[in-house]
Design a protein that fits this description.
Mean pLDDT is 78; it is low at 134-148. This protein has helices spanning 8-141, 162-169, 173-180; strands at residues 146-147, 151-155, 193-197. Helix content is 75%, strand content 6%. Helix 1 (8-141) runs parallel beside helix 2 (162-169).
Length: 199
């Protein structure tokens, strides 16, 4: 067996090559370990992201179910409220119709009462006129006194009118106006003496 005897410079070169080879192997192993750690971290991060995604999807499903439930509740509440409003409107309409009927009944009763009052007053006025007419007639006939030129002298009493005096003597108002030279039938005064021509 032969031994290779290396000279000094060549031996140094071989030693350097060996050191570089060893260092290269160390670097490669360090890089490999680092890559394994990165890959492991990436797998863990991926698993965490998948868990987060599952939780988010579950939360979204829950929120969607809640939205559907709330939407149904809102629809049901709206329907109930609409029915309530409709019932209230029907009640108000019935109340208004009832009030209108009552108002019409009150108006009819007022018209009836008014007519009755007017009729009663008319009857009383007629009774008063009838009862006062003979008194006036008798009062008017009391001061009758025959005078010359075929007529009577009449003294005007309180409340007498020319037409009432003319009626009491059975003559026309125009005859009395002409006989006394009156300008108007309204120009009478209490105590005035009138000549009443004979009919």
């Amino acid at each position: 067996m032969h031994r290779l005897i290396l000279s000094g410079p060549f031996r140094t070169l071989c030693a350097a090559v060996a050191i570089l080879s060893a260092a290269s192997g160390c670097v490669t192993m360090q890089q490999s370990d680092e890559m394994l750690r990165v890959q492991q971290q990436q797998r863990e991060d991926s698993l965490l992201l998948q868990d987060d995604l599952r939780r988010i999807r579950a939360r979204l499903d829950y929120l969607e179910q809640e939205m559907n439930r709330l939407s149904k509740q809102v629809d049901a509440a709206g329907a109930d409220q609409a029915r309530g409003y409709q019932s209230q409107m029907q009640g108000m309409t019935a109340s208004i119709e009832d009030l209108q009927k009552r108002i019409r009944a009150v108006d009819a009763a007022r018209e009836s009462d008014k007519k009755e009052i007017v009729d009663t007053l008319s009857r009383r006025i007629q009774e008063v006129l009838k009862s006062s007419a003979p008194a006036r007639s008798s009062a008017s006939s009391t001061p009758r006194r025959a005078v010359s030129n075929e007529g009577y002298e009449h003294v005007v009493q309180s409340g007498e009118t020319l037409s009432a005096i003319a009626k009491a003597y059975g003559v026309s108002s125009a005859d009395i106006i002409q006989a006394n030279g009156l300008k108007s039938a309204d120009m009478l005064r209490v105590g005035q003496k009138l000549f009443i021509p004979a009919p």
